[in-house]
Amino acid sequence: MPTEDPAVPIVCTECETETRVPLSEVADALSRHNEGTHGGEEVAEVDPGLKDQLADLVAEDIGLFEED
After folding, report:
1. How many angstroms separate the CA atoms of 67 and 17, rounded?
2. Cα–Cα distances in Å, from 3 out to 6, 22, 50?
3. Half-sphere exposure of residue 57: CA atoms within 13 angstroms, side-chain side
4. pTM higher than 0.70, yes or no?
5. Does the pLDDT of residue 1 top 60, yes or no?
6. How far is CA 36 from CA 6, 16, 33, in A?
7. Residue 12 burial class via C-beta count within 10 angstroms: exposed 0-12, middle 13-18, buried 19 and up
């Protein structure tokens, strides 16, 4: 049974757009948009809220929130 990549929200504040792309396509989608629309400037990005959630999960997983 094939599994689908989770959809990741990509936002561009300059274009005021949001889209979702499969996880395996995030880097290419960001590069394509930023190169083609913003002259290579890194304007579009993974939704900042999702990035914060992922950072918290990773920090928790590696024990950064544990008190001695």
Report:
1. 41
2. 9, 11, 21
3. 6
4. yes
5. no
6. 25, 16, 5
7. middle
